[in-house]
Structures are given as C-alpha cells and as structure tokens.
TrEMBL record:
InterPro entries membership: NUDIX_hydrolase-like_dom_sf, NUDIX_hydrolase_dom
Entries under SUPFAM superfamilies matching the protein: Nudix
Region (Disordered): 196-218
Protein name: NUDIX hydrolase
Keyword Protease among record annotations: no
Domain of life: Bacteria
Signal peptide residue numbers: none
Domain Nudix hydrolase: start-end pairs: 50-183
Gene3D superfamilies in the record: Nucleoside Triphosphate Pyrophosphohydrolase (3.90.79.10)
Keyword match Calcium: no
A Pfam family that the UniProt record links to this protein: NUDIX
Length: 218
C-alpha cells in the first residue's frame, strides 16, 4: 500500500508516503493496522491507525422545537448516556450515509422525516483513527410503527428535550457524548445565524472507506 499527502518544498509540503502496512487486529467493529510512513528528514515512523466503519447521527426536531434523544447504556463508561439517535455505516456498500441516518432514526426512535440537511461532519479523533461521522438535521417528523430492538437498544428510553434545555445540559456536563454535543451546539449555532445548512448531497471527503472495503457486507 502506498500513499502521499501533498508535495513540494518547505513546511506543509512533505509527502507522507506509506512505505508498508500490516494488520495487527481485526475485530467486530474496528481493525488496527500499522503504517510505515516517511517523515520529514528521511526517518520512517510507525503510525497506528484504527479503521472504523464511520457513523451517522440525527438531530430530529419536531414542530414544537424539541429534539429526540435516547438514554442508552454505554459499557466502556458503565453508565447510561443521553444521546442523539446514531449508528454505524455497516450495512454494506449500497447504503448511503443518508439511508443509514434514516434507518437509524426509524430503528431507535420510530420516526421518519420529510426534510433533511447536513448539519456538521466530524473527524472524531484523527490522530489515530479514520472514524468520521456525519450529523443530519431532520424535520417534518412523523411517527412509525415500533421497531424491534435488541441488546443495549432494547433498554433505551426516548426523551424529548427542548434545544435550550439540551444546550444547558451540554454546558452543565450532563450530555457528554461527543457526537451529541456537536449536534446540539451546531443546531443552536445554525438557528442563531438563520440556517445556511448543506444539502444531503454535499460531498463528505472524510467518509471512512477502508473497513467497509474489507467487509463489503455486514
């Protein structure tokens, strides 16, 4: 595997060519690979990269200005967190990010929406992982039949929260999920500047592809 980032002379122009790569762990939702990368000055350094499916999340806002949130158990923290509906891009190559967001909204909170926009794109920890997430704003909501839920999702509780209350909970440290913090604050900022959101067809240059290429089906 080879690759390069930028070319030319001077700071900010070095080609970070990948001279070799190897997989050291292949798990259910992540793969860990090690790349040998050419550094400025001629040194070759190992860089650990966690490949991830990527994900989508949804700020679903009703006509009263409330947003749908779920209280879900997160085992690494050993507690329940208040979060936006979200899920992995793990359903195969034929499902777009928008399709995945619509699926997750139906599966987690039994909702569909007529109006969709891209809210923000996140690179969640680019120092070691290609994990990226696209957040959508969904409005014009209508209720669907209850979905069947399993494992942690079978224990989820849906809560409707006003945007002002959600922002207050973020600032109080009560909402700590990074995706949810970003989505809530992004909607508040968008409202303050009267919109300007991107269409759902907007390019997503950092959408992860490596893990999905390894595993084309779920």
């Amino acid at each position: 595997m080879t690759g390069a980032v930028r070319g030319g002379d001077g700071p900010g122009s070095h080609d970070f060519a990948v001279q070799d790569t190897r997989t050291v762990y292949d798990g259910a939702i992540i793969t860990l690979r090690i790349d040998d990368v050419a550094m400025p000055g001629g040194r070759v350094a190992e860089r650990e990269v966690v490949e991830h499916y990527g994900a989508v999340a949804v700020v679903a806002r009703d006509d009263e200005g409330r947003i749908a949130m779920v209280r879900q158990y997160r085992h690494p923290l050993r507690r329940r967190l208040l979060e936006l509906p979200a899920g992995l891009l793990d359903a195969g190559p034929d499902e777009s990010a928008l399709d995945a967001a619509q699926r997750e909204l139906a599966e987690e909170v039994d909702l569909a929406a007529d109006d969709w926009h891209v809210l923000v794109d996140l690179a969640l920890s680019p120092g070691f992982t290609d994990e990226a997430l696209r957040l959508y704003l969904a409005e014009g909501l209508h209720v669907l039949d209850s979905a069947e839920r399993h494992d942690e999702e079978a224990d989820m509780a849906v809560e409707w929260v006003t945007l002002d209350d959600a922002v207050a909970r973020v600032l109080a440290g009560e909402i700590v999920n990074a995706t949810s913090v970003a989505g809530i604050l992004a909607v508040a900022a968008s409202d303050a500047r009267d919109g300007g959101l991107r269409p759902v067809t907007a390019p997503w240059p950092d959408e992860p592809t490596a893990l999905r290429a390894r595993r084309p089906t779920r």
